[in-house]
UniProtKB/TrEMBL annotation:
GO cellular component: plasma membrane
Superkingdom of origin: Bacteria
Lineage: Bacteria, Pseudomonadati, Pseudomonadota, Betaproteobacteria, Neisseriales
Compartments, as annotated in UniProt: Cell membrane
UniProt keyword list: Cell membrane, Membrane, Transmembrane, Transmembrane helix
Name used for this protein in its record: UPF0056 membrane protein
Length: 198
C-alpha cells in the first residue's frame, strides 16, 4: 500500500483519535484551573510530539537492535491497529478515565492518550518503510498534532456542540476506516513476507 502525505496524516489522526478522547481529556483536566488548561494542552501535546518524533527518527536503529524486519513491523502494526479499531467500534464501556489529583503531567494525556503504543508503532513503521520521505512524515505528524491540539483546546465547546452521541458516532466511523487500513497493512506485510521466502 503506497502511503501519501494525506493518507499518513489521516492515519495518524485516526490513531490518536482526538475526538474520541475528548471525554477522557476533560476528565483528566477537571482538577486543573481553567486559566491553566491552555498551557497544559500545549505542554502535553508538545511532549507527545517529541516522543513520536523520537520514535520516527530512531525507528530504524530500534528495529536493527531488536533484529526485527519491516514485514514483522507491518504485520504487528496491522494487528495493533485492528485491535484499536475494534475498541473504537465496540467500546467496552468501562471508562478508563481515572480521577487525578492535581495537574496531569505526561501521564495520562501525552502518554498514552496521544502518543500511545499504536501511534508509536505507526510513526516507526512510516519512517522505516520509506526513510527517504522523512520530511513528509514529519509534516504529517506535525499536522496531526496541530489538529489534536486544536481539538483539545476547544474540547469543552466541541463536546457541547456535537453532543455525546455525535462524538460516539464519529468514533465508530473512524474505527471502521481504521479497520480497513489495518487489514490492508496486515495483508501487505504478509504478502511481502511470502514474496521474500521464495
Amino acid at each position: 500500500m503506497q502511503t501519501s502525505f494525506l493518507s499518513a496524516t489521516v492515519l495518524l489522526v485516526l490513531i490518536t483519535d482526538p475526538l474520541g478522547n475528548i471525554p477522557l481529556f476533560i476528565s483528566a483536566l477537571k482538577q486543573v484551573k481553567p486559566e491553566r488548561r491552555r498551557k497544559v494542552v500545549y505542554r502535553e501535546c508538545l511532549i507527545a510530539f517529541t516522543v513520536l518524533l523520537t520514535f520516527m527518527f530512531f525507528g530504524r536503529e530500534f528495529l536493527d537492535l531488536m533484529h526485527l524486519t519491516d514485514e514483522s513491523m507491518r504485520i504487528a502494526g496491522g494487528v495493533i491497529l485492528f485491535l484499536i479499531a475494534l475498541k473504537m467500534i465496540f467500546p467496552s464501556g468501562a471508562g478508563h478515565a481515572e480521577k487525578l489529583q492535581g495537574e496531569p503531567f505526561i501521564v495520562p494525556i501525552a502518554i498514552p492518550l496521544i502518543a500511545g503504543p499504536s501511534a508509536m508503532a505507526t510513526v516507526l513503521l512510516l519512517a522505516t518503510r520509506e526513510p527517504g520521505r522523512m520530511p513528509e512524515w514529519i509534516g504529517a505528524l506535525s499536522l496531526c498534532m496541530l489538529i489534536t491540539t486544536l481539538v483539545f483546546l476547544f474540547s469543552v465547546k466541541l463536546q457541547k456542540w456535537l453532543g455525546e452521541q455525535a462524538i460516539t458516532a464519529l468514533e465508530r466511523l473512524m474505527g471502521l476506516v481504521l479497520t480497513a487500513i489495518s487489514i490492508e497493512m496486515l495483508l501487505g506485510g504478509i504478502t511481502s513476507y511470502i514474496r521474500n521466502i521464495h
